[in-house]
Amino acid sequence: MPVDHTGTSLCMFHQLGIESCPGCGLGHSISAVLHGNLVLSFENHPLGIVAVLLLIFRIIVVFKAYFDYNKLKKDWYEQDL
Q1: What average pLDDT values come out for the chain (81 residues) when binned by 10 residues?
Q2: What are phi and psi of 8, to 5 degrees?
Q3: What is the pLDDT of residue 6?
Q4: What DSSP element (H or E) covers 68?
Q5: How far apart are alpha carbons 28 and 45 in whole angstroms?
Q6: Among 9, 17, 46, 49, which one is least packed by beta carbons within 10 Å?
Q7: Burial class (CB in 10 A: 0-12, 13-18, 19+), 41
Q8: How many angstroms separate the Cα of 69 from the Cα of each of 17, 57, 64, 66, 73?
Q9: d(CA 13, CA 78)
Q10: Which own/partner contact pairs does 14-21 have at CB distance under 8 Å and 24+ positions apart?
């Protein structure tokens, strides 16, 4: 969803007329980070940059665990032969 999108929203807070939703702010902040606009990201939600860094870190950890497991499994199969 574009950050400047003003159409209808599925957000419960927006449906109730509350304009400042922390979830929407975080989503817009993450979108702004991924588009390279750090100032807009911080304006939408201060933790958006931190959230992106945590997501990147978690992706790296999952890939590392996957490749280490496959290497371990390969070594174990070769040991039986």
Answers
A1: 63 80 84 92 93 96 86 70 53
A2: -70, 155
A3: 62
A4: helix 48-80
A5: 8
A6: 17
A7: buried
A8: 49, 18, 8, 5, 6
A9: 57
A10: none
